[in-house]
Every structure is written in structure tokens, then in C-alpha cells.
Design brief:
The structure is a homodimer.
Chain A (H helix, E strand, L loop, with lengths): L17 H9 L9 E3 L6 E3 L4 E11 L11 H17 L4 E11 L5 H17 L3 E9 L4 E12 L14 E5 L4 H18 L11 H8 L5 H9 L6 E4 L4 H12 L2 E5 L7 H9 L6 H7 L6 E5 L4 H4 L5 E8 L5 E4 L5 E3 L8
Parallel strand pairs in A: 4-5, 9-12
Antiparallel strand pairs in A: 1-2, 2-3, 3-6, 4-6, 7-10, 7-11, 8-10, 9-11, 12-13
């Protein structure tokens, strides 16, 4: 009866980009309700008829793919699961309000383990004023899968879709990029060492920043607040979950434009640079920024008229500008070489 | 580093009831927003400040626990995943509007398999006028886990919580009970036969009703509509996902009351009775109704004044009445024996 693995004309999932997969799967669905303002295709769905819209988003983390129990404290995992969903609300210029948490978990986990996970969920909820309003806890045959549904609000005239970037807009990013992936590289390196020699005690102190960036990312609600205080509504916005390259391409494809960003303006922390220098393959820090992902910083575009308001805003970096439709998304190096940005394949 | 399996003072998850687990995990979370009308503890969260409230619920189905790929057509699985979440919206007397679908899936599945799953999701969406507005598709190391977030609306004065049942209210249930579990029993029996002899072609035709009840349950939106047309607002309501016994106890515990239901009034289909008679352990059909679960019928209470409006309503059965606080939840047999109902343990 089960013929999953022996189909004729089978198309492997990993041959598809994430864009193609989501587009193809949700293709042909009709819209039945006026209250569905925006469905598939952005960081959140936008719902409702009143001037204050409801935002809804779901994000799933799977054991062995998004987290490895060898080096992921459960409390951090709970925190992160909330943070990544909340980050999607923030990326629509919204205010997170509630979450529901669904967990599929094997008997390998004890009640105490789940309580530790929930301690992290609670920490993130308390930090960002979010109410836990429901969820589902089910058995699974192996590992843990956590899905967090986040619900938020946004004023109609302040919604920032991926679609609004226009010619000459400035491209901005918050914080620094590539540090989360650098943290992951360190954890993977220490895991290999530990597996070879279980008496080995990893020294992780000097990597504290990149480790925290990977294990316990923060949604940049503070940046959205600063923009609001300055009277700036970005023309488009997304959170950097897949890496700068993929997420810039999301904006360019959705907004029908190209862009030019300058390598020297891409914010990279010194610990990221140090981690790259330690890796045997002489990794370039900018590669981590472009392709690493998991930073959950905000990538957004602003109208040139808002330049003065943003140029000295703490934690915000102007890294380039939007070019016209038909132009590629490129990075310009300090040597004035132009590199066309390419999306990484199937996102995990 | 990983010490999940070797903790001191470890409490196994399967020693806990589902009530205890959810209560314990969400204990100590504070409410930050007035828009959170109702959080954990009912079929849905109730959100918003306007007279039309937003309902949100999540439900997760895990491979090997809730479905077995040996006998679950992917199209049915997609349909069911939507139906069970929508059923929670209906159980609050609400109208389903939107869903988001999150899938963790291993490379064992092809694009074509996911398309088949989405064909079922679409069928259910089209049937019940629901918009697919988002989701997440991630890799998993093994099997498939599907989480559906459903969003709906309900007029403030028509919300039916589990908490509203009061002394002398009548206990009602829609459709029939125990058939979904009977379908599962047949599928499990045929699976064993097939594994022993792969040339065996199962004859499932005469079990069509119970199989469909298990594989493709329907949310009872029609019943909620009939109640609305008749001007009846149930005093409490829940959908029968865990079996009549557990779900009656949910209502009794939430409403601080007891109840008495009559075995002879519990609706049971003849196919359910036939399946039970075929099973080697002489299973009682009423056991399937009480403990089988998965029927997704509506269990609700109504004020006695609404008796005339409900007594001849097609698809609705009055099975008992609410007794006072401190009394147990019991079933009275045709021989006038009283059996105290017990919740089944940890719900999968």
C-alpha cells in the first residue's frame, strides 16, 4: 500500500527552491472572504475589516534540522521558537500580541524537559508582552517539532509588505549579519570534537555573542519602535531568516525591482570575522551574512526623503539602494566588482 | 551534553493526563493584553475588542501517531488536518474563515505527495469556504507532522465555552459516536493481514461509512447553523475528539457540575456495532463511543427551555442532563446500572 518511495515521475523536494514550493502548493486556492486582505506570500497573513488589521504567522522548528539537542538548551529553544514567529509580525511593522504553541514530542522527553522548554517560551512572552493563548501537545514517533502561531496587530496605513520597494529607495538592515550562522559553525565544530573525545570540555566563552545570536535571537521590536517614533514607515520589509541574499531577492521579486548593496556597508561583527578566520576553508565573513541566515534582523527599504531620519539611527545601517525593474540584485565589492546575488535552495 | 534520557527525578509524559500536562505547562503565564479574552483552556482562544471576536486554534497530526501512511491517502490526510482544526472553531459556535498550514516533512515525500496532500487541504477549504492564508514547509528528519492553525469569528453573545453548563441543562450530541475509531480498528486489522501476506487485497467496501468517518471527518458546521436558525445558543460546547467520556468530563470539570447520560440514547451506527462484533475481544460498541475519539461530532448542553426546538432537530440527540456540582459524570445502562466515566490518559 505504501508507495511513497517508489513513485514514477517523482520530483524530489530538494530540487525545488522554497519560492517554487510554496507557490506551487498554494496555487489554485480561491479566496472566499473579504476579511482575507493578504494571504500566502509575505511574512504574515493580514486579516480583518477594521483599520487595525490582524496579523497571523506560523513558524516550525524541527529537531535535527533547526536544532540539535546535543547543544541546544531547551529553555533557549523555547525562547527562539517564540522569537522567530514574533519576528515575522515585526517584519510587517506590527505589534505581537498572542501566540499558540504546538509541540509534537517523543517519549524521550520528560515532563521536566517540556517545563524547561516552556520556561523559555514564558521568558520571551514576558519580555515582549505576549500572551500564550493556546496550543496542542501531541506524541511523535521521533524527535520534537515545535510550531508557533503568532498573532499581532498593525494599523492599516503602516503595514509593510515585501511588495512596496521602489526605484531609488534606500536598503537598510538592522544589527549585524552572519553572526547566528557563525554561532552554529562553532557549535557544530565543538560537537565533532566532543563526539571524538567525550572528556573534552568545550571553551565557548569567547564566542558568547555569536552563540547567543544563534541560540537565542531577538525580534527587533525596538527597531520598529524607533522607526515609528521617527515617523518613518518603511516602503517594504522582511526579516533576515534565510540570509541577506535570499531575503533581498524576496523583496526584489515581490517589488519587481533590482537592488545594489555595498559589501563594505554590510554590518558584520568582529566575532563573526574571527570565527570565519578559524574555519579551515577560509570562509569569508560576508558569505555568512549573505547565506547564513537565522539572524532575524530587519531588512527594509525607505524612501529617500526619510534619509535624514534614519542615517544616524542606532542599530540601523544603510547598505544600498533599489534599482529599476529588470535589473538584478547585486553586491558591489570594495574593488568595485559586481556580484549577482543568488538565493540558496530549499529552505529548511 | 545530551542527557535527556538519563535525568534524575524524571517524570514520564505518559504518566500524566492531558489536563495536567496543559495546565502545568501553561501555569504561571501572565496576561498582558485586554484583547486576550480567553486563553488556554477551551477549544479556541478568543481575541479582540469588538463585538465580533476572533477565534484561533491549532491542531497537530503526527505520522505514526495520528496517521499511518500504510493506509492513509494523502488527500484524505490534508482534508482531515483542516477538518479537525475547523471543528474547534465550530465547537465555540464560530464561523471558520482562514487557515495556515505548517508541515515538517522528510525527503521520503516527493513534491507530488505534497501536492496530493494540498489537494485535500483545498477540497476542505472549498467545501467550507475557508481561505488558506499562509504556512511553513520545513524539512524533518523523519515522518510528517502537520499543524493547522484555524482562524474564525463569533458574535460575542454567541460564544459557547466549556464553562457554561448548568444544573438541569440537557446534554446533546450530533451524529453518531464510535464510528471513527471503528474505522481505525478495521484499517489496523487489514494492515496486519496485508503485512502477513502482501498479495492480500483487503475488501473494505462494506466498511465504507466507518472508514470515511476515520479518514475524512467533517466539522459539523451544519449543526451550528441549525442551532442558530432555531435561535438556540448552547450553554456549553466541545467537539468529541477524545471520546465522549473525556469530552463530557472536560465540560463537567470546566462547568463545575456532574452529568448523567443514558447508554440507550448514545447514537451508534450499525457499522460500528458490526465492527465490534467482528473483533476477537467482543468489544462493546458503547466503549468505542466513550473512549474511541476522533468523531469530531459536537457535544453540547442546552437550557431546558430550548428542549422543544432541539428535540426533533435532525442529527441531534439528547443523551442526558447536567447534575449538580460535586456529582460525578456517569452513564446509566439500560439495566439501570450507573457507571462512572473516566478520562482516558494522555491524549495523542
Amino acid at each position: 500500500m505504501d508507495s511513497l518511495e517508489y513513485q514514477e515521475g517523482r520530483t524530489e523536494l530538494d530540487t525545488l527552491g522554497i519560492f517554487a514550493l510554496v507557490d506551487r502548493l498554494s496555487d489554485g486556492f480561491e479566496r472566499h472572504h473579504d476579511t482575507t486582505v493578504k494571504g500566502v506570500g509575505d511574512d504574515c497573513a493580514v486579516l480583518g475589516t477594521s483599520p487595525v488589521k490582524t496579523l497571523v504567522t506560523v513558524n516550525t522548528l524541527a529537531e535535527g534540522v533547526h536544532f540539535d539537542m546535543m547543544y541546544t538548551p531547551l529553555k533557549h529553544l523555547g525562547y527562539k521558537a517564540v522569537a522567530v514567529s514574533v519576528s515575522n509580525i515585526v517584519a510587517m511593522n506590527g505589534r505581537p500580541k498572542q501566540i499558540e504553541v504546538s509541540i509534537a514530542v517523543s517519549n524521550r522527553y520528560s515532563l521536566e524537559a517540556l517545563e524547561e522548554l516552556y520556561a523559555g517560551i514564558r521568558l520571551c512572552c514576558d519580555r515582549y508582552d505576549i500572551d500564550l493563548v493556546g496550543g496542542d501537545t501531541v506524541s511523535s514517533r521521533s524527535g520534537m517539532v515545535i510550531t508557533v502561531t503568532a498573532i499581532g496587530e498593525v494599523d492599516e496605513d503602516k503595514i509593510t509588505y515585501r511588495t512596496g520597494a521602489k526605484l531609488h529607495d534606500l536598503v537598510c538592515v538592522s544589527g549585524d549579519l552572519g553572526s547566528a550562522y557563525s554561532g552554529l559553525l562553532i557549535l557544530e565544530r565543538e560537537k565533532v570534537t566532543y563526539q571524538a573525545n567525550p572528556d573534552f570540555q568545550p571553551d565557548l566563552d569567547s564566542y558568547d555573542y555569536v552563540l547567543e545570536r544563534f541560540l537565542k535571537p531577538e525580534p527587533r521590536i525596538d527597531i520598529v519602535q524607533k522607526l515609528s517614533d521617527a515617523g518613518v514607515v518603511p516602503t517594504s520589509m522582511i526579516d533576515v531568516s534565510d540570509g541577506l541574499a535570499s531575503d533581498l531577492l524576496h523583496i526584489c521579486q515581490s517589488s519587481h525591482c533590482g537592488c545594489e548593496v555595498y559589501e563594505e556597508h554590510i554590518p558584520i561583527d568582529y566575532q563573526t570575522t574571527r570565527v570565519c578566520s578559524e574555519m579551515s576553508n577560509n570562509m569569508l565573513p560576508v558569505s555568512n551574512a549573505l547565506n547564513g541566515g537565522g539572524d532575524y534582523e530587519l531588512l527594509f527599504t525607505i524612501d529617500q526623503k526619510d534619509y535624514e531620519k534614519v542615517k544616524d539611527m542606532e542599530g540601523v545601517h544603510i547598505i544600498g539602494h533599489i534599482t529599476e525593474e529588470g535589473m538584478p540584485a547585486v553586491m558591489v565589492t570594495p574593488q568595485n566588482t559586481t556580484i549577482t546575488l543568488v538565493a540558496q535552495g530549499y529552505r529548511n
